What we know:
single chain, Spore Coat Polysaccharide Biosynthesis Protein SpsA, Chain A, 2 domains, 10 helices
Amino acid sequence: MxxxxxxxxxxxxxxxxxxxxxxxxxxxxxxxxxxxxCCDDASDDSTPEILASFKERIRRLPRPxxxxxxxKRLNYMIGQSRGDVIVFNNADAIPQDxxxxxxxIAPLLNGMADAVYGNQLPRKDAQYLVRKDNIRAFGDGxxxxxxxxxxxxxxxxxxxxxxxxxxxDETIRYSEDVEWAHRRPMRIAYAQDAVVEHSHNYTxxxxxxxxxxxxxxxxAIFGDAPSLLRELAAGVKxxxxxxxxxxxxxxxxxxxxxxxxxxxxxxxxxxxxxxxYARRNTST
Length: 284
């Protein structure tokens, strides 16, 4: 039985999206009552003012002291919630209809899953290769189902008692969602009809930082031995998929010259992160 759903929204400098995100959340049609909890991480744009405009319709949590660590912030917000089911939704992930919430929590309520993640559509300004990556990771779910492991907290749901018994890791800086979902056997469901708009056109600098962080986290989560050859081979395969996709979408062919650079950057920095984790955690 679920008496209340708590929707947790974290933000930092999300003025371009958070108003639309909260409006869409508050307009949800759901048989279960829900509360919305927001915690802003010292935004220096108009995000705090936008949050204030929603007044009593949301519950604003004070920012905890100390630096931002994803798992620590998530555990704090879960502790402040009152719902039997916890929904995580990024401030920049905009629900696309008023059934997003009902569709997202359905596998939990019917006992078919222990955790659920939703569908992410690329934004209208998304680069073509970003669109391709979103389709592969989400879409009908068939591609991601063949991967070793996949879970995304961007728009997702789990039971509060499970989250309290198994809190997020408060030491890692990336992939805290994957670490949490991979830590023990779980039934994970993909809710294709729970749709948000969410994507990022990362710069090369941002790609380096993100994939290094994910590589370091993957070393901790999966215990993989670093292999530059394996990473580069995977990069070449992805480049070939990029070429095929762009040929099918001629408007995106302008991205072709940078495609190999971006893919090999991703793979190199992922390897570097995995390598650094291994070096720092190998017993001597």
